[in-house]
Amino acid sequence: MSTATGIRQGVGESVLRPDGRLKVKGAFAYSSDLRMDGMVWGATLRSPHPSARILRLDATRARELPGVVAVLTHEDVPGRLLYGMKVADQPVLAAGRVRHQGEPVALVAADHPETARRALRLIEVEYEESPALTDPEEAVRGSGPLVHERRVDGKSGNVVRHVRIRHGDMAAAGQLAEVVVSGVYEVGMQDQAFLGPESGLAIPAEDGGVDVYVSTQWIHDDQRQICSALGLPPEKVRLTLSGVGGAFGGREDVSVQIHAALLALRTGRPVKMSYNREESFFGHVHRHPAKMWFEHGATRDGRIVYVKARLLFDGGAYTSTSQVVIANGSYFAAGAYDVPHVEIDGFSVYTNNPPCGAMRGFGAVQSCYGVESNLDKLAAALDIAPVELRIRNAMTTGTVLPTGQAVDGPAPAAELLARLRDRPLPPAPEGTFALPGGLNNTTHGEGIRRGVGYAIGVKAIGFSGGVDDRSVARVRLSLVGGEPVAEIHTSAAECGQGIVTVQAQIARTELGIERVVVLPADTRVGDAGSASASRITWMSGGAVRGACVAVREELDARGGGPLDKLLADGPVEAEYEFSHRRTFPVDPEQGQGDAHIAFAFAAHRAVVEVDTDLGLVKVVELATAQDVGKAMNPLAVEGQIEGGSAQGLGLALMEELHVKDGRVRNPSFTDYLIPTIADMPSVPIDLLELPHPDSPYGLNGVGEPPTLSSTPAIANALRDATGLELARVPVRPDDFIGRAGFINDGSGEGR
What we know:
Structural class: alpha+beta
Largest sheet: 7 strands, mixed
Helix content: 10-25%
Number of strands: 28
Radius of gyration: 26 Å
Number of helices: 17
Strand order of the largest sheet: 3-7-1-14-11-12-13
Strand content: 15-25%
């Protein structure tokens, strides 16, 4: 039995998602819709202070409130008090002190959500505020107070990690460089802003364990952390993925999981926890705000000789994934270019600001904005069109990265940029509504300037640096009503990216059947890893394909022939563990090593209109070109690219969590702005399908790359329109008003 051809809804087709219609109609069951007879409601008391000692906590009045069934503090945690994805340094409930605003202090379970909220207000906590460290530059200098007096990793100070990369000969490079430009660039704190706040249901079991139904990105890592806090073995902590209302990295860290399980075991009743929108802003990590120093040296004919960069990422109060986020940002700080000499220093630090961790693009978003901004400055100094400077220096297959690894897969950076360059520019907007501020009738075209900007980004796909990444899938083929049906069981988290659909497509292609059922993701099957790093289709898709091949081999062993006859003796089932080629850690002194399995490239060209009198911006078009390896589901791929581009637009123009003195000032969708349909431009998409040599079907990760280049392309277009430096995103209206440096002729030459 061989791979089927001509099968409907297989690999490479734009198969509609089984959950799509339900979500559009509002009938899809998310984790916040879960309920069970006899359940109680959990709620969390959070610190109002960014840094304080807890002198006294008295929950007597809360416990006496009718309807309250439990109040828990850190003393009620039966297992390990500390948890964390990479470093277990975050308390389940604060013990003695709090390190950021919103840190959980106590839990309540009650028979009604309003009763639970009333009980929270009755818990008396006496705090003694202590000096808060909120300046990351102070943190890296070592001049501020310690966020952690005793770090669990055995180190001291407020530096989470220093990534040091040295490649080539910087002394010689300095002699070769004829033109040198430098700049300082900043990125604000972006929130994942998923529409479904954190929620879940924990149910105590007869064996003394607990069943947890939750929206997450990695149920097995959640299980590990819950087991540690509860002091229970894995077989007594069972997780099932519930409907996920978006993620983008914000659900990699645990939120309600441990708290709900604690309350369920204490009360002996099912416990539901569901954050409101404000609490959600405190209940998950955010994108690291960054300050970055870049220097480019080049020859007069536009050849980049060296890049020197210093990156400073604010990780907030706890580690989360800060040490790998800064590594990822540092690895790609030279951009998608062939740069022979590199000196990069990346720092992530602890502060008493909100914790930061994974968000789509994972550090490479920040460094891409910095390097692409400085490259436009270099283009101006050389009097070369920015897109031509990029093409001249574009990375190719065989290019040696700053980490010393040669790119051995497709590297179509120049082709992506050329395709965008050769696209016709969009015509001038027609009608007032198409102008900046036109929806509000604030302009009739006065003071409008057009700008065009380019950017390209590169990022590793999957986990890097020696992580032994694996994914397990189980496939069962049986007869149901006389017709062959395949059941797929993995723990891959469906976060909206479409992995459920792709798994079914793979099974149809490999087994040559139409009917496929994808079982709910849970911990009864082996680990699939996280739905992050643009890895889940590569890894879980590879596992499903491997399991299907094993099923086919078993069918062949039965003698071949029609499926109904082959399955008459019973179902065929196979489990397969997929892993990728080996990677290695980079060395700590020079940052050299074969750390990555693959690379993805995406480029954007932004066309903007700016009303410099009012400071308003309209992105007219955000064209993009991306190598996707193999478009497993072309419609879904385009959706991922459009969504990533929208998040990049948000970071460029409006999205920022404002934090002052460690306190969040805008924890609501009234004040934290995200793009709406009125803000989104046309997004023409040019897909390249250059098969990767190591992946299933030649596919490549597609979810993160659009977030890399969309933000700097828009920023570069704004600079082109105004002549302003605009060294920080998001760009605000008052960054423009009355400050434009010159009038652009709108030619799109980017001078």
